[in-house]
Structures are given as structure tokens and as C-alpha cells.
Amino acid sequence: MAKELKELTKRSEDYSQWYLDLVLKADLAENSAVRGCMVIKPYGYAIWEKVQRQLDDMFKETGHVNAYFPLFIPKSFLSKEADHVEGFAKECAVVTHYRLKNDPDGKGVVVDPEAKLEEELIVRPTSETIIWNTYRGWIQSYRDLPILCNQWANVVRWEMRTRLFLRTAEFLWQEGHTAHATKDEAEIEARKMLDVYAEFAENHMALPVIKGVKSANERFAGAVETYTIEAMMQDGKALQSGTSHFLGQNFAKAFDVKFTDKDGKQDYVWATSWGVSTRLIGALIMAHSDDNGLVLPPKLAPYQVVIVPIYRSAEQLAEIDTKVAGIVTALKNLGISVKYDNADNKKPGWKFSEYELKGVPVRLAMGGRDLENNTIEVARRDTLTKETVSCDNIDVYIKNLLNDIQENIYKKALDTRTSRTISVDTYEEFKEKIETGVFIMAHWDGTSETEEKIKAETKATIRCIPLDGDKTPGKCMVTGNPSAQRVVFAKAY
Amino acid sequence: MAKELKELTKRSEDYSQWYLDLVLKADLAENSAVRGCMVIKPYGYAIWEKVQRQLDDMFKETGHVNAYFPLFIPKSFLSKEADHVEGFAKECAVVTHYRLKNDPDGKGVVVDPEAKLEEELIVRPTSETIIWNTYRGWIQSYRDLPILCNQWANVVRWEMRTRLFLRTAEFLWQEGHTAHATKDEAEIEARKMLDVYAEFAENHMALPVIKGVKSANERFAGAVETYTIEAMMQDGKALQSGTSHFLGQNFAKAFDVKFTDKDGKQDYVWATSWGVSTRLIGALIMAHSDDNGLVLPPKLAPYQVVIVPIYRSAEQLAEIDTKVAGIVTALKNLGISVKYDNADNKKPGWKFSEYELKGVPVRLAMGGRDLENNTIEVARRDTLTKETVSCDNIDVYIKNLLNDIQENIYKKALDTRTSRTISVDTYEEFKEKIETGVFIMAHWDGTSETEEKIKAETKATIRCIPLDGDKTPGKCMVTGNPSAQRVVFAKAY
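^ Those are the sequences you sent over. The predicted structure of the assembly is below.
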């Protein structure tokens, strides 16, 4: 029965169902009683904590500080920036009252009509408006700049079609909001944070990403330029994994935030914002996992090593306990997180498949023969291979192995992307190939019309105009008009 | 001008205004455009991060894990536990719609009447209901217990009279929610978390607290027993600093959460919940600070040491820079957080008063004579005393000094509380003394009627029935009826 419970739909049969099975069965998250809102379960949240800790360190190393701004935004704020309201008013939770009262007709409670707010409040879908309204009070002179704030928070967007981690009505994220004296400085900041995100994705999530610029259609509502990192999932679809926006003076103008420069002249302040969310956990799952369960890169695994004893008697278990205690200490001394599971109400086979499902990078098993031989069985989650090694210097061995696994998971994802990225020059070929789950590098004339036509006919979007790589000009595959460089097309989550 | 900006109202003149001045001028927090919601500024948030990190470590050491539950609670959930709805329905933010649309009569946006929710959602004032509704799916058997979850989150209570940190409509907190197979185990858990809170308050916040039980009037809505830690502020008022609730089977019954025990019998699950909030920062400020600004205990100070150079020339500054660099490294190697402020646009005097205002525990200053003599000036924030010491072994000297400061701040707060805690036996004396800002240990007959009479006539409440200390019975100071032990009365924040 335990085995059936853990069985997943195969990726090859139904990729979407495989993903959902995995999120539920690996105890990462589940749907809640509130439509579109998820419960992040302890194992899923432990991954988020690893993500948070690492990103937070990186933000602080680049000079940022954390702060906290209100959950609620006065309705009128949303409409101060013209594009912003178009982007966010359509999907927001609106607070209209501040009290309930007993239902006069029976039991239960009803909204008290007398407790109606004068102005409705929006649950933040993103915080540019409330933050720039606050920054007005913080900024008078160039001496007050730059402001480099980040916030870890929950936000709400009333999505109609939701999927655990990937798209939920409420999600957790960080949002950086910076204010600068010059356009240059703000542009550099927006690019710097894109690099931070790319470094995090590649070095910690083991997720190769393409850094690029969004087309006008896909730009953040209120931004002058949106930078993005785009990753490929195992089905060849793209997942936007982080964005960094150069906001120009749009929000400063909307909220009248001016400063006096060194020469005594007044100007509007320049802005950026940037964010990543719990969506990253969806990316992590979809990029690396397999039909047996999660595959977690060691740097983000809640625990990196699990040790399972295999014993025939209480005496033998006691001997193994003693032997393992030394190994646990040695591993911890090298900064490796480890769990020793000697619980006696589950069999080793059950534990093996459990930790496979949960994506623990390395599983060690010790039995009677290992005790005699001073050996231990080492199983890698990423390759599903096993070997028996000496217990001497096992700590250093495991440390190196974890590095290998981290690299291998990255390499595998990179190989997948390389093998599924193609260049296409005709729209006919594009329409055929895009159905096979690939990133297509193609020329585009730079217009929204052409982009919309392609999207309408193929459901593929321009994921980004890459910052690095081939910049050879050419001709748009649809219109034949000039194209500055190939851009990345894909279907996307 | 800088000096005036930093000047605070004196505590002796107007304690409330002093507090507000300090919160604003030390850049801890400010009011936002949304009534009752605060902006936590970077310096204030940095203190909260220290609080979070420490508490989170302590929760994990005691076996807890973090998770995340939805922001929204269906309205019907609130009324499932009879006492709970009475306590929380009166002050909650209600989401009734999920979309805005362009105002047909002009610019701006209005609520779209067609996007009305079938059931209104409440922004969580606390999460017992949504969590116990979730736990129903997690618990079948005794093997699924205990569940030891904590959540770091924002909550909203529509308070009419708010004060930065102490009482705000939105605040940040952690809420632990545990599920147990037996009454005993749940009671032990509730007491254990009270001890964790008390240890944190005393050892990290340098805040002596009284551990006790709340009277029925002051109990959490839905709890069988509420445990509390109560601290004294410098005006002699009490501040409830953390609570831990034994919830019995109330929420399990309300949400039908049963489990099968080892003998195959079904029973409702036993529960606790416990929380502390950003209110702790208000306590920290009010307990220790003085007319010059914040006084922060070293364990929670965003930086523990600031170093200010005093120089007459660029050459001299360069020499000081070099000398200080070695000290900074030595301090950091001992785990001490340090900021070297050699910014040239502010004078040393300005910096001194700035860091005094911000409560940095130790300020070091180095000038030309110090260079010659291999000395440095050491100023303590808690005692406002200075001395000149040798640079040799300055790291160890500072480490010991920080320990001394931590202890001294605690001792000072304890002395204040001791000198302002009195025993009283008659209600006449009680009414007179309670106006002087004291904790009064008095006998009470255990009835809500007597407690309410005292509150109505004096504004003092029973802060707690202490768990430790004198348990001698006596007679109620109001009714003369028997009293099991003295309880703590005070006016409270």
C-alpha cells in the first residue's frame, strides 16, 4: 500500500499530472479551502527557507536592506500610474468592510453594512504604489539616495486558473524597490539584480537560465524595461523565473517624488523593482525531478544526506547507531545537513522509496556486512546509482559527492535545454517545431502585431530578447522585415 | 539643526510622546497612508530580523517546523468556534470582491459589482480556524501526531486606536499551532513554549518577565488556558509580551479533527497555539531607552559596535582607516557586528548623537592622540560613560564589554520592576497606589465580577496569576472572599 501511495503518474504519460502528483505526494503543498490559495507544507516550506536565506544573503552583500510596507493599498493609488492599473486592477482582492456581526436571522456572522470603508483597500498585488507613496516622505535631496530596500511578503493576484506553486492567488515573494538619483544608476541596478537572480538560479537551483529583455507586450505594467531570466522545464516549456524592472521616472511622477541634486536642481527620482516568488519551487521541481520523485540540488535540499540502518536485531541496531553517530558528527562538522532515520516502525524499503520521493541527494545505508567491513552503501538520487565505499574519510567523500551531484544536475538541465533549442528561419517550420516542446531562436521584426499574431496562432510567446549570444541581424520569419537579432520563442507556464 | 531634529520629548514630561518621537526619529517605523498600518523602516526591521532569527532557532531546537497557510479565511470558518467568533469578528478586514473596473463616470477605478464573492473572505486575524480545517486532512492516526508547525506571517485586526509597534491594524508575528494525541502532551507543549518566550525575553531582550496564567476575562478567544509573559515598561505599565494557549479539543471539535489511538479508539485531537509579534519591538524600546534615544541590548542590536574617526587631515584619516581596519577584522572574527563610519559629509559630533539615538551599544572613537598612544575611546550607550583603553586585545575587551552591557540592561530593568512592585491588602490603598505606575500583588477572589469592577474603577487589569513565587492564600482585597494566591495587577498597554 505504501508503494502505491507514492506512485506517480509518469512524465511521458501526463506531464501536468506528474507535477501535481509529485507536489502532493512529496508533501510540498496542497490546495486550501480558499480558492486558488495553497498551503505550503513543512517540507515545501523548508525548501523556500533555503531559497530565502541564500537570496537574502546575496541581497545584503549587494548593499540592500529589508523593510516592511503595508498589506493594503488604497484603491486610488492603483490608478495613479496608468499602465499599472491596467495590469493589476483586473485581478485583485478588495477589502470593503472592517467588521462582521451576528446574523440577525440565525447563527453565524454576516458583514456589518455599517462598517463600510470610505475608500476600498486592495490587497497588494505588488507594492510599487504604496512604496513610492512612502518614499515621497523619505527623499528630499541626493543625499537621501540611493534607497535600496527589499521586502519579503505575501501578495495576492486573483488568478482564475491556478496551479500549486506555479500560479496561485496568494503567493510568497520578495520585492526589491530602489530609488536613484540618475537614470544610469537605476539601469545598472536593474541589470545587477538580474545577474544576482541568474547566479542564484544557476549556482543554487542548478537551473540554466537565459538572461534577456522582455518585449513591450510582456513588460511589467509600469516599467520602461523588464529584464527576465527564462528557464526550460523538462517538457520544453519556458518558465519565467525572475524579473527585474527599470521603472524610469514613472512611479516618481505618479507619486510626485522629487529630489534636489548636487547643483540644487529638482528632478524626479529613478526607480527599479525586482522579484522572485514561490514559483521558483515549481521551477525546481519541474526542471530536475523524475518518475521516482523529486530530485533536489544539494544546495537547496532541506537535508542533504539521509542514513538508514538495516538490521536484524536490537543489538545490531545498537552497533549501527554507534557507528553512524560518528559519521553524523563528521558530516555536520563539514556543514552537511544529515538525518539519521532509525525509526523502527518503517522498513528500510519503505524508507528508501520515501527519501527517493523526497529528493534527498544522498542516501547512506549500513547493514551487518558493512559493520564487519567498515563500509557503507552510498546511493545518489540524481543518477539512481549505488556503490559501497569505505567509512574512512566518508565525510570528505560525501562533501565531494554533493558537489558532483550539484554540478551533474545543472549539466543535465543544460544538456536538455541545448538539445531542445533550435534555430528556425521560416514561420512554417516554426509552427511545426513549436509543438515538439522546444525553445526556438528566430528572427522577429520587433512589432507587437507580429508577436500577437504568432501567439494567437501558436500559443508561443517571445520569452526574451537575449542579452548574450548571437547578435547577427536577419529577417523576420513572419513579415520578412529586418530583425536586429534572434529572440527566444517558447510556450510557457 | 541636526541636533533639533534628533531631540526627543523627555520621558518625565510625556512618556507617550517620548515613545512616539523615538520610534520616528530613530527611523524604526512610521504611519502609512493606510489607517492603522505601519511602515517598518530598515533599522526597525533589522531588529525584527534579529528577533526572528533567534526565535526561529529556538523553535527548531524544540522540534518545530515552519509552514505557510492562506492569508484568507472563509467567513463561515470564523463562526465554527463559538468563543473565537466573539473575539475576532468585531475587528476584521473583509474581502467582498475580486476585481476593479474603470469608473464609467470618469477616470480612476471602482469595484466591479459583478465580481462579488459568493462567500466573503476574512483577512486572518489569527489562523486557528484555517489551520485546523487543514489539519483534518493531515491527521488520521496517532502516528500522524504530534504536528508541531509554526508560521511567520502578517495578520490584521481592525483596531480603532493604534500606536506604532504596540497596536497596529496589520502586524507581523509568528504563530505556532500544534496537534497532540493527549491532553497532557498539549499542556506540556503550551508550558514549554511559554518557557521559550520567557528565555528569549530575559536572555535576548534583557527584559525580565513574569510568567503566569491569564484570568478567564483575559483568555484567548477559544482557549481553555492562556499562559502569558508580562513585562514592566519604564512608566510602570505592563506589556503582554507573548502568549501560549492550551486550546483543549475546542478547535478539533469545531473542525471535526479526530484520530485513532493505539487501541483503535477515536478521539478528538488536543491543541495549542502560541505567538509573539512586532509588539516585542515596542517592548524593547519602552523598557530600556532613555531621553537620548534607543538603548538596545547587544544581542538584538543591528550592529553592536560603531567606530568613528576623528581627524584633521586626509593623511590622518588614512592612518586611522588602516588602524581601524585591523580592529574591525578582529571584532568580526569574534562574531561582533561592527560599522566603521568614516563618511566625510558628517561631523563626529553629529555621528555621536546619531548612534546614541539609534542605541548602538558600543561606540569607539579614534583620533590623532589615540594613534600616537595605541589607544581608542570606548563609550557605552547604556551608562553613557567613556574611557580610553589600549588597542591591544581590544577585540576581547569589547566582547566582554558587550556581555556586561547585556547583563547591565537586564539588571536595570529588573531593578526598576523590583522597586515598582508592591503588595497591597486593601482596595483603598490599591486605588491610590495603582496611579503611581506600579505592579500590585494583591489577593483576588477569582471571579470575573470582581475583576471587572476593579477594571471599571481603576483601569487596572489582572496581568496574570503568577506560576512562580508566593502562593500563600489570603482574602480578596475587594470582597474579602478567599483567594488562592496573590495575582499581578497593573495598567497595561
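Chain A touches chain B through 65 residues (CB under 8 Å). The mean pLDDT of chain A is 96.

Shout if you want it in another format.
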